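INTERNAL AUDIT FORM
Audit reference: QA-55
Scope: verify that the stored structure record matches its stored sequence.
Auditor: D.O.
Record contents follow.
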Amino acid sequence: MAKPFENHPIYSLMQTWHQASSQGDLETIRSLMAEDAVFLVTDHPPITRDDFLNSFNAIRQSVHLRILDWRIEALEEAGHLAYCQSYLHLAITPKGNQHPIERKGPVLSVFRKEPNGQWVLLRDANFLSTVED
């Protein structure tokens, strides 16, 4: 069965992002973001692209990230901007530990189409919460 939106370039971007996140591929993640990208996470101030990349780089040294499930629930494109409502479920396992911490929930992302036609992440609001046993 086909997944909704799988033929849209943003679906491909998100799939690449998740693969790169699981592999700790910082350069690929950087290439998928606008230079002025901003990330919003509950209980934290907004962070810039560089702050995100620095934080991701530090975290990937101590944990393994695995995407358990993700899907696009809504995707709308209007000219050079698009928004995407998605669902994400991931496992974060500290290196040397067998017990992952699972987080899941909605994510709202805004993308911009660059002059070269490539879509990049512009804003990301992540509302994941810890899954209780």
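Auditor finding: record pair retrieved intact. The longest strand covers residues 63-78.
Action required: none
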